Each structure stands twice: as structure tokens, then as C-alpha cells.
Amino acid sequence: MFERLREDIACILERDPAARSAWDVLTCYPGLHALVLHRRARWFWTHDLHWLGRFTSNFARFLTGIEIHPGATIGRRVFIDHGMGVVVGETAVIGDECTIYQGVTLGGTSLAKGAKRHPTLGRGVIVGANSQVLGGFTVGDGARVGSNAVVLKEVPPGATAVGNPARILHREADAQREAAAAKMGFSAYGLTQGDDPVAQAMKGLIDNASGHEHQIALLWQAIEKLSARSRELPTADCVPEDAQTGEHFDAERLSRLVK
Predict the structure, then answer these.
(1) Alpha-carbon span 196 to 192, nearest angstrom
(2) What is the per-residue DSSP string for 15-75?
(3) In terms of Cα–Cα distance, which of 129, 109, 134 is closest to 119?
(4) Backbone dihedral angles phi then psi of residue 166, each to the nearest 5 degrees
(5) Predicted local distance difference test score (pLDDT) of residue 192
(6) Most buried of 76, 151, 183, 231 (most Cβ within 10 A)?
(7) Is the pLDDT confidence value at 194 over 90?
(8) d(CA 161, CA 131)
(9) 3-state class of 103 per DSSP?
(10) In the chain, domain spans
(11) Are the beta carbons of 122 and 92 closer than 8 angstroms?
């Protein structure tokens, strides 16, 4: 019990710059109080003392503004920041080291009793303020849910879900696209952001142009190698003077198109 409490206090001091001391956290953080009371409610629930479990859960909601069903499973070093209005359903599972902000709902979309109706959060998931995660799916390890997002389907590990209904943004794909654009001397993010239609079009253009440039360069490299090995046809005779044998992207022309 005390070991878990020390872990909880340490994780809050680590993640919240407003936390000034362990005593401050212990006495003034409703997220910590809700977790401590949930463990007692959970013990009652798993020992068939369902009424006591629900009563303890209701008392915790009255005290903290955070409603956690006693049937929910919560891992270690979970931080509920501010916490007012957080609702965690009966079959929800929250993994280790998750961070949940105020107004979050881990809810269900099914009325079937005994079914897995609520989401499972993997390790290190961050759920932004006022977001709703609804359904019996999994939010992968290290994923993030943006503020006010409504998530209705599985989120892959490391991805970000934003919007209503939520769209999945893949961190690696975005990083690769920006690296390709930077290599070409152009950055779509310097012109438009977020859901702007121009930004979406530019992402598609960058991906398409990068792939074509790479394939063309590979083809010419293969032709050069084959012609160099041939005794009958020199390389210079095989490759035209205006052939594009390297990867090149006209960034200035693309910039003019969106101005």
C-alpha cells in the first residue's frame, strides 16, 4: 500500500511542474485521492462486496469529482491531472504510467452485460482534456489522444488521435514525410498546418513526388550499371544527356502553386 502511494507521489512530482512537494501532492491532488480510494473499492468489488465497492466509488466521486467504477483495472504510476469530470467505466483497463486529464470519459458503446464494453489503455498513454474514448478496443502503448477528441476505434502504438470523430496520425509517417520534404528543399508545414485542405494536398504531393523521384533514380542507376558492363554499348551512348539520374525536386515551382 505505502509502496504504491510513494510511486504515485513520485510520478506526480515528475510529470507536474506545479507540484512543489510530496506533502503538497498528498494533501491537495484529487487524482491521487481518487486512485487510493479506487484501490479500496476495487478490493471490495473483487471480494464480492459489490455494494461496498460502489459506495466507496460514489464517496470518491463526491470527494474528488472523479468517477471510477470499482470494476475498472488501473496500473501503476497512473496520473490523473486535475481530474474533475473524469469517468472510467467498469471494464476499462488503464496501463502503467498513463496520464489522464480532466473531463476524460473511458466509456462504452454496448449494453451487453459481461462484455468488454470499455477501452484498454496501453502503457504510457496520454489522454487529453475532455476527450472521449468509447468502446472495447485498445489504445496502443505510447499513444496520445488529443483534447476534445472522440475516439471510436483502435489507436496503434505511438500514434496520435485527434478530432471528432478521431483521425489517426502516425508519428513515423509524418516524420518520414517531413524528412523527405526537407531533403528536397521544401516543407509543407511552413505554409499550412493541421487540417487545411492545402496541407493535405501538399502531403500527398510530397509523398508521390518523393516516391517517383526515388524510383526514377533507381532505374537510371540500373541502366548505367548494365551499360557499363556491356562491351558493345558504352554508358554515354545509353544514357541521354537530359536524363535525370539523381533525385531532384523543384521546390520553388511547388511553392508557387500554393501561393
Answers:
(1) 7
(2) H-TT---HHHHHHH-HHHHHHHHHHHHHHHHHTT-HHHHHHHHHHHHHHHS-EE-TT-EE-
(3) 134
(4) -65, 140
(5) 37
(6) 151
(7) no
(8) 10
(9) coil
(10) 2-169, 173-257
(11) no
Contact in structure between 170 and 154 (CB atoms under 8 Å)? no
Mean pLDDT, residues 167-194: 56
What is 74-100 written as a DSSP string? E-SS-EE-S-TT-EE-TT-EE-TT-EE
Tell me the CATH number for domain 2-169.
2.160.10.10
Q: Are strands 160-162 and 167-169 parallel, antiparallel or unpaired?
A: antiparallel
Q: Strand 93-94's sheet: what is its strand order?
A: 73-74, 93-94, 120-121, 138-139
Cell 510530397: give the residue. Answer: 206
Block residue for cell numbers 509543407 = 188
pLDDT: is 43 or 166 the higher one?
Answer: 43
Per-residue model confidence (pLDDT) at position 27: 93
Q: Is the pTM of this model over 0.70?
A: no
pLDDT tens for each residue of 106-143: 998 877 787 889 999 999 999 999 999 999 999 999 99
3-state secondary structure of 9: helix
